[in-house]
Amino acid sequence: QLQLVESGGGLVQPGGSLRLSCAASGFTLDYYRIGWFRQAPGKEREGVSCISSSDRITYYVDSVKGRFTISRDNAKNTVYLQMNSLKPEDTAVYYCAALNRFTTVQRMCTIYPRLGYDMDYWGKGTLVTVSS
User: Fold this and answer.
1) What is residue 56's predicted lDDT score, i.e. its pLDDT?
2) DSSP 3-state of 85
3) 67 contacts 19 by C-beta, under 8 angstroms
4) How many whole angstroms separate alpha carbon 80 and alpha carbon 73?
5) Do residues 41 and 107 touch, judged by C-beta distance below 8 A?
6) β-strand partners of 11
7) Cα 3 to Cα 9, 15, 24, 82, distances in angstroms
8) Sign of dihedral through CA atoms 42, 43, 48, 50?
């Protein structure tokens, strides 16, 4: 079965850290751009961070720059999102997605969710709650 599975979400206090993982099964992530997206209650899904297949190019939404780091380990077929200095406004369901199309990571993280373009694969999401 071809799928992405997220893990690592949970409840954390403001200022705390979490590391999310996105593991692929049934296919290899080597040639895919990977993105982390989030959706808070009552809000539209937004791109948080995206990474190229070579991991040389990354994109971050302004609100997480300097706090979140995306990385990939193709040997483990996994992409990570290290989240530090978490804030209550980071509370959301976090999804990872894979895309193997000729586009930029910036467009994957901004244009694609804004216009509702499909990704090749989506995970089912993991909940991150930042609260004291």
Assistant:
1) 84
2) coil
3) no
4) 8
5) no
6) 129
7) 18, 32, 6, 21
8) positive
Amino acid at 88: P
β-sheet bridge partners, residue 58: 51
Backbone angles phi, psi at 90, to 5 degrees: -85, -5
CA distance 111 to 114: 5
Residue in the block written with tokens 């409840």 = 11
Half-sphere exposure of 61 (CA within 13 A, CB side): 17
CA distance 132 to 127: 16
pLDDT exceeds cutoff 90 at 79? yes
pLDDT of residue 1: 84
Pick from 10, 40, 24, 55: nearest CA to 119: 24
Residues in the chain: 132
CB contact burial 68-83 (16+ within 10 A = b; e otherwise): bebebebeebbbbbeb
How much of the chain, in percent, has pLDDT values that exceed 70? Answer: 100
Q: Tell me how far apart the alpha carbons of residues 29 and 31 are, in angstroms, rounded to a whole number.
A: 6
Cα torsion at 18, 44, 47, 27 (round to 10°)? 80
**Residue position matching structure tokens 């406004």:** 89
